[in-house]
Here is the input.
Amino acid sequence: MKTGVEEKCISKSRCFLYTIMLFILAGIFEIGGGYLFWLWIRENREIGFALVGAIVLFIYGIIPTFQPSHFHRIYATYGGIFVVMSLIWGWVFDGTAPDVYDIIGSLIILVGVTIIYYWPRESDE
Here is the structure.
């Protein structure tokens, strides 16, 4: 039984683009939903921010189910991608630019999650 990324994808390049799109989409929903709660609690915004945040986080919980891999690899990779996206989010929405150490750490994380998620394995063939 095949359980690899390729099994549910038309081609490796299309699969790569599809999975990257899902990782980014999930990151936007996860970080965005959390940010709405942050605004509600930390910046005393209206309760509507929390309600929309809850809906956005609920949708985020569905997005990973469309990834063509195993649960543990998907969530490990999301963790790394979310670190990078959180730094970008802070830069765009809070005006806090990543420093050199944020960038170095992000590059290390991206190499790690690329290996975790995309490295071919015998068990996936």
Summary: The CA atoms of residues 1 and 125 lie 9 Å apart. DSSP finds four helices and no strands in the chain. Helices lie at 12-42, 47-62, 71-94, 100-118. The longest helix spans residues 12-42.
